[in-house]
Input
Amino acid sequence: MALSAPPAFATGNEDGLILAAQSTTHSLPRPRRRFGQHFLVDQALAEKIAALVQPGANDRVLEIGPGRGALTKHLAAASERLVVVEIDRDLAAFLRREYAQTDLHLIEADILELDLRDIQRKEKKDKLVIVGNLPYNISAPLLFHLLGQADCIRNAILMLQREVAQRLAARPGTKEYGLLTVMLSRWADMEEILQVGPQAFLPVPKIQSSVVELKFRQERRCPVEDERMFERLLRAAFAQRRKMLRNSLLSLTAGGARQALEGVGAQAEIDLARRPEELTLEEFSRLSDAFSAVEPMDKV
Output
């Protein structure tokens, strides 16, 4: 899960690239702040990202937030059929016009409310391959959404805020390590492939970006007795990440009993004086199973 040192991507003429993009925006849908839109305008980069998307014979490519179609045109050219999900109605109308002669299935909806398993079944494919330049304001919620339906996803090629990419690959004991890190490490292997500067987008963001690949596993690491308990444990722990576990996990015991909590820690062989960012995935799994075995437990 550790970040390697991926190459930074830069164009040879970034100023000219942005000016060319700006000169054509009068005929294109404008970016909307409420959707956190930063359109990819670097065509060389778009082509490079699209080339990373290599679905199997029985996979379906699904693009999230196609925007003005910088990635879409490359994906559509390489796919027998492409599914895209766009929430912006103006962009959806634009894409319908632009791709009227291709086998592009456009879903006008909020990706966070879509059942990906239902799409996979309707497409009659084994797995989905996800690709997208994600709006920064939904990156974390979308990643949790993908993890909740990981069984229908082969892999995902995503443009993320660099800070989010660092969180995904963080190691225990670092400030970036958190709930998203642990949840992702159960279901996927992550590699940062490219680092992207702000000038690749319009409007130009104030942050750096990364292209990452998530390769989803057939079976999750460190299976636990109760998935619901495991998630409750993580959320309780990282909601108060600066506190010792003996304080942040009291809500998981019946009546907030400290004696019961100490018993759980002893059974899992976890020192409850530690803080959540110090625990490995395997230790969280042991602690979850110890909670599941204790009675009475509040499992509401």
